[in-house]
Amino acid sequence: MAYNDLREWISALDKAGELKRIKAEVDPVLEITEITDRVSKWGPRGRHGAGGPALLFENIKGHPGAKVLINQFGSKRRMEMALEVDSLDEISGRIKMFMDVKSPQGFLDKLKMLPMLSELGNLFPKVVPTGPCKEVIRKADFSLLDFPILQCWPKDGGRFITLPSVITRDPKSGKRNVGTYRMHVYDGQNAGMHWQRQKQGAEHYRNRMRKLAAEGAANPVTAALDLMARSGGGSRIAEGKQVAGRMDVAVAIGTDPAMMFSSIVPAPPDVEEFIIAGFLRQKPVELVKCETVDLEVPANSEIVLEGYVELDELKMEGPFGDHTGFYTMEDLYPVFHVTCITHRKDPIYSTTIVGKPPMEDAWMGKAVERIFLPLMKLTIPEIVDVNLPIEGVFHNLMIVSIKKSYPGQARKVMSAIWGLGQAMSTKCILVVDEDVNVQDVGEVTLKVLNNIDPERDIQFTLGPVDSLDHASRLPDYGSKMGVDATRKWPSEGFTRPWPEEITMDAETKDRVTKRWKEFGLD
Ligand SMILES: Cc1cc2nc3c(=O)[nH]c(=O)nc-3n(C[C@H](O)[C@H](O)[C@H](O)COP(=O)(O)O)c2cc1C
Ligand SMILES: [Mn+2]
Question: Among residues of the chain, what percentage have pLDDT more than 90?
Answer without folding.
Answer: 83
